[in-house]
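Dig into what follows:

_____
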Amino acid sequence: MDGEAKLDFAWLPAGTEALADGEYDAIVLGTGLKECILSGLLATKGKKVLHLDRNDYYGGDCASLNLTNLYTKFGKGDPLPGLGSNRDYNIDLIPKFIMACGKLVKMLLHTKVTRYLDFKNVDGSYVYKGGKIYKIPATSAEALNTSLMGIFEKRRFRSMLMYIYNYEEDDPSTYDGMDLKTQPMSDLYSKFGVDANTQSFTGHTMALMRDDEYLNRPAIDAVRAIKMYAYSLERYGKSPYLYPIYGLGGLPEGFSRLCAIHGGTFMLHRSVDDILFENGKAWGIRCGNEVAKGDIIIGDPSYFPREKSRVTGQVIRSIFILRHPINNTADSESCQIIIPAAQAKRKSDIYVCVVSFAHNVAAANTYIAIVSTTVETANPLTEIEIGVNLLGEYVDRFDSVSDQMEPEADGTQDNCFISASYDATSHFETTSDDVLNLYQRITGEALDMNINADSTDADQ
């Protein structure tokens, strides 16, 4: 699956042409991943799609930037000497890994966008406990060998894992007296007597829950997530995660190509001056003296009137350029480290994502680390210090705090289908959920993602 050459998207229009004949089934604003997936899916359904972006590059908030563009975006002038050339770098603004058997992979396979991209397995997945980093035990064998817990706790944890892996929703003989669709996850933990530490890393690093509210929800949600984690790990071995060669920017580019192949019109560097409304319903956009009509308008919150969205919080993300791997990660060229909220004495987890030259996103022997979390105080930089301290010495850093936005309405009444901002998580599961939700609201039907898993490698 490793790639050798980056895709050339020069064939996509740069936005100098007029708005064609001006009438479309859907107008999509912004080339973030969510918007590009939706434009690709709609185009394959035969919809006439116009897709615009105010920037002169693809990806929006989730773009991958070269060195010069990164320094320019953060107002830091020229890149530091000795870092290499622009062509060596594709640095993500938003850090995310792809769960190997997760929803985004199913979308990639469903649309065959995998033919445009190459991926590499992430080397390891780790959890922080008591000032140290430990590999996340995800199999019964690893549960017995891990130094993350004592010998008696290992046995309890292994018994719980075996129950979860053997549990089948359509086979009551595997329930062992539990009703996971009604009983909370706290009941499942109690059944096996696992301690608070085991509950923390199981829920936050395997089930990928963002807070402890899941303890009070039906256990089936966490069990499904843990099983997906295990299946993903079994499929590729080192960790359950994949990452695109040349960075995450290739994902929106791939879906953009899918849309264009099916007749979509793309225009970069085209600002949208107004979204046009009549009787409370959007019917088009204005760009200068040009107007394009559209049955629906799709986009990220920044393209719509402010009253269409609300701020639900903030996320801090700090990008670091390193010359070394992270200590205690077996010299991994890529890894994820999750610091559970309880370990950081906070409400939200802290995520550390590391990629490197091995993925063609940095110069030789150079690593890119991104530390992120949901902001909880008036001093966001201090909130991620526990993650920053894991990195060791760094060459340079780039800090940003951004608002998390969500739409006020579902779009069915005003024809404005607005995506939510990207959260602090280091995986694409919540992103995929938002895409699937938007798709169903737009089309009135759920996306059928039934894929023969045995064919995934062949399709790529």
Remarks:
- The chain has a mean pLDDT of 90.
- Residues 23-76+244-309+407-459 form a domain with the FAD/NAD(P)-binding domain fold (CATH 3.50.50.60).
- Residues 310 and 405 are 5 Å apart (CA to CA).
- The two ends are 7 Å apart (CA to CA).
